[in-house]
Structure formats: structure tokens, C-alpha cells
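INTERNAL AUDIT FORM
Audit reference: QA-55
Scope: verify that the stored structure record matches its stored sequence.
Auditor: D.O.
Record contents follow.
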Amino acid sequence: MTTDHAPLCILLAEDEMLLAMMLEDRLNISGYRVLKAARLAKCMELAESAPIDLAILDINLAGEASFPAALILRRRGIPFVFSSGYDEQDVPEAWRNENILQKPYDSRQLNAALTGLLAV
């Protein structure tokens, strides 16, 4: 976790480059520091060892599910939200109780999800 004076760090796992860049800009403007991962291996590496406070995980990272990274974050006690274009019934039952930002989402929905994570 970061100190009280450092900006909160978010792991952003998103494989769509333009969306990742747009989200990074939004998050930076909101005062967050962003670490990006477009592939599951990098996401898991960052989830395991990076000093992150929150995470936004696209469920499908270039054809690989991000659930293994979510397990790492859960073990570390780092709150996360999934983002997905899938319908809820397409998400494995074990993960349906997690917060999911349904794509496409806007800044208001993103901010609400992050506020919810910070309240945990």
C-alpha cells in the first residue's frame, strides 16, 4: 500500500490499447498512479509484487481469463473490480458476486466503482 502522501496506485489490466490509454488518462487526472498490463502474465506479475492499492481487471486479456490475477489480489487483500463486455451469465458462477463494470462504462460508473473499492 502507498503512504498517505503518495497517490493511490491502480493496476489496470486491459488489452484494448485505446481503452487502456483513455482509462489511464482518466485515472491520472483523478490523481491515481497507474500500472498497466495487457496480458495475463504481466498482470499476474504486477498483482503478485507491485505496491498497488486497487485494480481494474478486464476479464478477458487477449483470450486469457484474468481470474488467476484476481486470486492473487484477493490473497493480498487488494480490492479489485472486473470490467467486461460479457453478460453476467457468461461469468463463471464463482466470480458473479464480484463487482463488474459492464463495458462500455462512463466516468461516473468508473468513479463509483473506485469509490466502492476504497470503502472496503
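Auditor finding: record pair retrieved intact. Residues 17-91 form one domain.
Action required: none
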